[in-house]
Records
---
Amino acid sequence: VQSPSSSDKPRILLMGLRRSGKSSIQKVVFHKMSPNETLFLESTNKIYKDDVSSTSFVQFQIWDFPGQVDFFDPTFDSEMIFKGTGALIFVIDAQDDYVEALSRLHLTVSRAFRVNPNINFEVFIHKVDGLSDDHKIETHRDIHQRANDDLADANLEKVHLSFYLTSIYDHSIFEAFSKVVQKLIPQLPTLENLLNIFISVSLTVLILMYTTSQTCMFLPDAEALFYFRLMQDGSGCAYDKESLATIKLNNTTVLYLKEVTKFLALVCILREESFERKGLIDYNFHCFRKAIHEIFEVGGVSSLLSEKRNSSLKFA
Ligand code: GDP
């Protein structure tokens, strides 16, 4: 079975005004750049295509657009660009006056929707680190209201926009990107099913899955992210097939990390007494890992999600 060519991979577009933070988001989330380093990034002035397959578990590409893209320019091929797009992320700088950004958002969404009504429209209300909590809520409410009013005025109320408050200075940008990517994974229900089975048969309280780019796929809370960072520091974050890490916390909880694929780790949060049956957990993990490899790597297409594969898994 051939792996999908780059043109088949779901495409995520990053759009928004100049200096809204598009390149920073991409560099921080997928290239491990520290937030402070983004201060020195040059502004995006041409379409930058980033195939994140070599750094991410989920195969997709991100196209970072310059702020001043002109939809009426005949060289802007909106058919080609929007047809193959899974999600369009529009970044709005919440620390700046956002009137122009909103009109740009409207123009972009109405254009894209006409070409491809299946695109997920995701609005990142970005740089909220500079806003007080009250100001965040008010900005969110205001942008939500105005963007939807603009759509209603254009008889486009059926277009759905999702909003996220984001900053590269905390985990919010990882969480938002994770949600955007999750919507594009056709295997998601199967993956969730596998995780549920794993939990129920392995005495595990909770499991988390992380990609090495630190974009966690299932992030229950910030505390969990903290634990993961702790483990990464301990394990040096160099994954291979044998990689694992165990941490005993004071409160009789054990964290157990194991490599699933080159780009993905599974972290189990267990009670100490459950961890005494480590052999059972390891065996179930082996089954889980095998299933993940089959579902995501053998062709990587949704047609592989047959019930048969699922039911042939033998967890202990
Ligand atoms: P682009 O032109 O949309 O690609 O924007 P850049 O990624 O070049 O970012 C423009 C500026 O915004 C840079 O100085 C970044 O450091 C800054 N920036 C990006 N994201 C954030 C954020 O979440 N919070 C703050 N305070 N600044 C940010």
---
Amino acid sequence: LIAAPALASTATSFPTTHDKITEVQDTPYFIDNKFLSSSTTDFIDLHDPATNNLVTRVPKNTTEELQAAVASAQRAFEPWRQTSVLHRQAIMFKFVALIRENWDRLAASITLEQGKTFADAKGDVLRGLQVAEAACAAPELLKGEVLEVAKDMETRTYREPLGVVAAICPFNFPAMIPLWCIPIATVTGNTLILKPSERDPGAAMILAELAQKAGFPEGVVNVVHGAHEAVNFILDEPAIKAISFVGSNKAGEYIFTRGSANGKRVQANLGAKNHAAVLPDCNKNQFINAVVGAAFGAAGQRCMALSTLVMVGETKNWLPDIAERAKSLSVNGGFEAGADLGPVITPQSKARIESLIASAEAEGATILLDGRGYKPEKYPNGNWIAPTIITGVTPEMQCYKEEIFGPVLVCLSVDTLDEAIDLINANEYGNGVAIFTRSGPTAETFRRRIEAGQVGINVPIPVPLPMFSFTGNKKSIAGGGASTFYGRPGVNFYTQLKTVTALWTSADAIGKKADVHMPTHS
Ligand code: NAD
């Protein structure tokens, strides 16, 4: 194993601009609490989305390196599971404190590699940090149950860790999604192999460093890199007992199927097409701010981005106001003061989004606000698309059927609440949805009938806080939503129940003949 030289991810200073990096360093991987340089010759170039300057080269770890990560996690498992839950809780408290201390540094890494604005990147870290904070309640969350079945018999349940588990993460939340996994997987006594997105692993590397500083023993948290081959290795490695995946349907459905066929537990959060239904009785100004923020924030690259607007009745007349507010957003490098949204992740992603906008035009929709061709003066080479609004959209159009994952709002109009509900329910995705109304009964009807798994009532991005769970539905989650991230279901995913039934009969109750009937304990 080759120790990595002084690395950006371990430095105390961090970037605050999109300036070209003069000495580009390769991203290390992390095993046994050590940053290591990969011996591979196969690297993925990572470019700053605002400039397309090279930031780092991400290795595709070799099979031997991936095997070393598994061996490390296997060695660490038994001693780690033997530690007291209070010990693990104390490490989690330290981890939480270190994330807070390194909040700006984590956010800066995200802005540089992923492109979102620094303020938004701080939110990315915070939503993950909140999961780590909730994981500090492990002694409570890991409690089992006891029932005194009879005077001499009791049944108890224990929650036991699974062993080595793995997490495969997407590019759009480089801190939050690793933090959906690291805290809960480890505090419950498992050891973890994390594969961040090859497009922005910097935040995960900082989290690895903080995990080591917090006192996680060697091998409890490991980070490896790569793309499909690394994922296939994880899917087929028998020592890995469970996989947490967040990302696209294409990758996730494959991962769920192959991982499950190999006997692993798999939880997989997938793509989305989140609708907002707006009713004429809503608070118009609050709604416009909410929909513009949630459609275009993070350049639309959130799985809960509010990308589809269903305008009920006369609200279709509000489109010029929505377009006006969208136009006022500042599209710029994420480190620039006042930037509201940054670039999209890659030139390929920009081209894909632009082709979806073009397809809408070709299919007869209207481009009310066209963000194609926009470039901030200081960053002419970035992957820019300014807020775009497409109106007159119908469910048959490609821009409606596909997840655009860019700063594009598609708008449909209907006459009634019932029509809005039917339209939204006919969509195959079911991640999030929002309704804007001042009417309690309207909101209640919507809440009952809507099929999406996360509902906002006058709340544009209803991502549940970590004492709840992330409950997407339909095509937005694999396996029918049987296993969801964080909250109690997250603890359940990373633990196996063991149920013990004990009988303490008094001496004179010992009979002379074996009872061959099925015991009923009644
Ligand atoms: P992605 O599926 O391209 O990549 C996710 C991970 O899977 C990466 O680590 C990548 O290396 C790996 N991967 C990609 N293609 C693969 C393949 N064919 N075989 C094996 N592994 C593969 O997703 P992305 O572009 O990084 O993220 C955006 C997507 O994630 C969007 O669809 C978004 O809606 C979704 N997402 C969903 C949630 C949620 O909770 N539902 C949250 C965030 C993002």
